[in-house]
Amino acid sequence: MCAAVAGQRGRRVLLIDHADRVGKKILISGGGRCNFTNLHTAPDRYLSQNPHFAKSALRRYTAQDFLDLVERHRIAWHEKTLGQLFCDGSARQIVDMLLDECDAGQVTIQTGRQIGEVAHADGRYRIGEDTAPALVIATGGPSIPKMGSTGFAYDLARRFGLKVVEPRPALVPLTLPADQALFRELSGVAAPVRARAGKASFDEAALFTHRGLSGPAILQVSSYWRHGESIAIDFLPHAATGWLAAAKRSHPRTTLRKLLSDTLPGRLAETLAEQLALPGELANATDRKLAEAEQRLAAWPFLPNGTEGYAKAEVTVGGISTADLSSQTMEARKVPGLYAIGEAVDVTGWLGGYNFQWAWASGWAAAQAL
Fold this sequence. Notes:
Layout: H1 2-8, E1 14-17, H2 24-28, E2 35-38, E3 46-47, H3 55-60, H4 63-72, E4 77-79, E5 84-87, H5 92-104, E6 108-111, E7 118-121, E8 124-127, E9 130-132, E10 135-137, H6 152-159, E11 164-170, E12 174-175, H7 181-184, E13 190-197, E14 200-208, E15 212-214, H8 216-222, E16 231-234, H9 243-250, H10 256-261, H11 266-275, H12 287-298, E17 300-302, E18 306-307, E19 315-320, E20 338-340, E21 348-349, H13 354-369
Parallel strand pairs: 1-6, 10-20
Antiparallel strand pairs: 2-5, 3-21, 4-5, 7-8, 8-9, 11-19, 12-15, 12-18, 13-14, 13-16, 14-15, 16-17
């Protein structure tokens, strides 16, 4: 994105990718259909040590701007849910679109090139025999290493004196310890829930796995979760307060398991009812016991012992500190001509196309300044 826009502005651009082809992460995104942006993009849907940093770039290059580009290339698309936009066809269309845009800007692309020493002297950056007055770090974070991802951006940033906010896996499944193996036995069961970590909460599906918890709601809160903290799941986020006591009065012979199975998958309903020790008819339970069960169902605690790591993480939280970058241009404040964009920077979006939109917007912003 950055190379294409800069090239079309008349800059001579060399785009270097150490992989054998460009856009590998794009190709696997969105189940191969690329969730290329989100209509609800807003700065409050991004994590950063400076929550204001992303505002400028996101305001100047919007989701509609990228959608206009998609439509100019006649790529069919659809909204899946929650503002998430996908290609009707293949993610390959987005890669081809960006390559076409690079062609229009006469961008030179080199793939399969390993980067050794990056030197800087007399106002120019040198990589091998190539020199330029500006260098853009657009190498992402270490998530999904099988795609060739590394921490190269952080190493390069430190080489030039930029600070790096501690990176960690984000949008990643959480693992549960052995004492919560009961829930691991529900592997494959999914349900719509409200998941919470700290002050963040998301109403989406949670999925029980053989290692712990996954699904969109869990991936979302994983970005906010830190080791040693618990998360909470509301299994009935739309239930009114006092619903169990009301059910006891209207249907005294029904059971908690039956009530839960009206909304939740049978295996999950059975497990929750057993854990709450309310096996019989509601008429046999006190209102206090029902209130306690209701409260637990609304905030069921889980204490993850970790995540599935960068191998399963869609993005990385942390990265090159925004304190060292201009929010207008993405240029390093103390190193003229050095820029950092996309996932390499300490700006991380929610699940659902937000991280792509940050990539497009930050790339566009840097290209305006090159």
